Amino acid sequence: MTTLRILFLASLAFLLAGCGPMSAQNPAGAYSPVNAVAEAGEAHLLLGGADVVAYFTEGAYRPGRPEFSSRHEGVTLRFASAEHKALFDQAPDKYLPQFGGYCANGIAYGIPWGGDADTWKIIDGKLYIFGGRASQDAFELDEAGNLALAEGYWREEVAGNHSFLQRAWRLLWRVPHYKSGEELAQAVAVAAARQAGGP
Fold first, then answer.
1. C-alpha–C-alpha distance, residues 187 and 199, integer Å
2. Which end of the chain offers a freer environment for a tag, N or C, measured as fewer CB atoms within 10 Å?
3. Nearest CA to 127 among 61, 63, 49?
4. Is 179 exposed, middle or buried, given 0-12, 13-18 or 19+ CB atoms closer than 10 A?
5. How far apart are CA 55 and CA 57, in angstroms?
6. Residue-wise burial string across 153-167, b where 16 or more C-beta atoms lie within 10 A, e elsewhere
7. Element (H, E) at 130
8. Burial code of 40-77, b = ≥16 C-beta within 10 A, e = fewer?
9. pLDDT tens, 29-53?
10. What does pTM read for this prediction?
């Protein structure tokens, strides 16, 4: 990396260190960075308060309630019921979304960005969040391959690093397999046409 690029990224990190979204996404615990917001006195509210247990027990997205909250690794989670809170407290790692709740398709490109709590999938007993249906469709074009890429980038680059710096790094220096949103949408359309019996 050139000195100019290092200075650019360091300057951006310094300028945004106090910025709410950047602070919310980078708690001090081991579960970091995370797809979190600052809300109602909570500095790091995961997935905007979505109940992570409901994905497993109800097969559905459910908003959590402030009265049923837990803290884990500096991150606050909310639950729809006392029962869901109890289940989480007994085995947090079972319910936490992979990749800090960021879009799994983004992490396959080394980019911790996005992640809509109502677009999700459980794969091999683990919860994955996506940045919308189009993102999930693109990921599912090669689920095993994209999952392997995402796990590698999370382990080697993203986990424990500042979300903004990682995002800036990978938006400026893209991974070799990078595809734009337009290219991914086209690939999804081609796959859908083939599945429907088209050319």
1. 13
2. C
3. 61
4. middle
5. 6
6. bbeebbbeebbbbbb
7. strand 126-130
8. eebebbbbbbbbbbbbbeeeebbebbeebebebebbbb
9. 899 999 999 997 899 999 999 999 9
10. 0.88
